[in-house]
Amino acid sequence: MPQIKEKILTSGLISKEDLDKKIQAKLDSLSGLVSEEGAAHIVANELGIKLWDASAKLQVKNILAGMRNVEVTGKITAKYEAREFKTDKREGQVASFMLGDETGTIRTVLWNNLVSEYHAKMNQGDVVRLLGAYAKDNQGRLELHMNDRSKLQINPEGVQVSVVASYTEKSAVRKALKELAEGDQNVEILATIVQVFEPRFFEVCPVCSKRMKLEGDKFTCPTHATSQPDYAYVMNLFLDDGSDNVRCVLWRDQVKELLAIPEEQIKGFRQDPAKFESWKTELLGNMIKISGRVNKNTAFDRLEFVANKVTKNPNPDEEIQRLKETSAKAQEDTEVSLKVEDV
Questions:
Q1: What pTM, to 2 d.p., does this model score?
Q2: What CATH superfamily is the domain 53-170?
Q3: Angstrom distance (rounded) from CA 130 to CA 59
Q4: Which of 146, 217, 247, 252 lies at 20 to 30 Å from 310 by C-alpha?
Q5: Residues near 82 by Cβ (< 8 Å), separated by ≥ 6?
Q6: Which backbone phi and psi does 51 adopt, to 5 degrees?
Q7: What is the pLDDT of residue 313?
Q8: Could you give the dihedral angle defined by the CA atoms of residues 7, 8, 9 and 15, in that order, rounded to the nearest 10 degrees?
Q9: Domains 53-170 and 173-315 share a fold
């Protein structure tokens, strides 16, 4: 919304006060049929202001909250694990990835039917064209969303995308465990494994990866006629960095990064959990670097760290250099504070 208003105001055709009045008037006249972003789009159209050039190729930097039927092409710079969700009104699957081009990156969220295609066909580094996406503001973060009416074209023939190196993956912010807060995104932690829990397995459809249900003596998928399930898995760790401890959740891709063994061997722990005991011993006391996000587990009233990427053996030289830089910055801040106090 702020981006749309800024583009309208830079035209010089209307003042901020009048723009706010016009947007509110549209909201009142349409009785909640449009969002505030939609009302701003209508005002822009009435003033003859083009929020973007429809004839030009849309770039990531030009995507604005409230846009509908977005068509944009980019490269997958990071791919995250798909999740199942269930609310009082609906249930399904959701997955997300980072889409990048030469102008920036944007988180892209896929819902339901597109998730099976994401799981089976899309990989980091692939070029994808999004058709029928819509852009929205999610707590100050711009996102693209794709529903059942949206379409994906994976590695379209003859299409290449350059991604500026600095956009391939936005650098995660390093935090101590005591500094973690609910809602933190793209955070990096460095901590020691102090407790390891066995992987938990659940039945999923081998075609679409949706959770399968046991009906009688067979597992069924609500979409595909199959009774032979595949298995996905999740694993929990307790981490400590000297400032605090936190429970960390690792899904399938992150478990594979941590254990660095073939997936069939991981799935073998389902039938013979005793084989995982040696891994518990090996992992305990190891320091790992993990990037991810912070969720609030309301059932236990605690924060949990959900991993996106796991680095099992962080480079000691890089960590020493980071500590030196952090120490130097802290010393500099202290000296500045002292000078201010002297004044």
A1: 0.58
A2: Nucleic acid-binding proteins (2.40.50.140)
A3: 12
A4: 146
A5: 93, 94, 95, 115, 118, 119, 209
A6: -75, -25
A7: 82
A8: -170
A9: yes
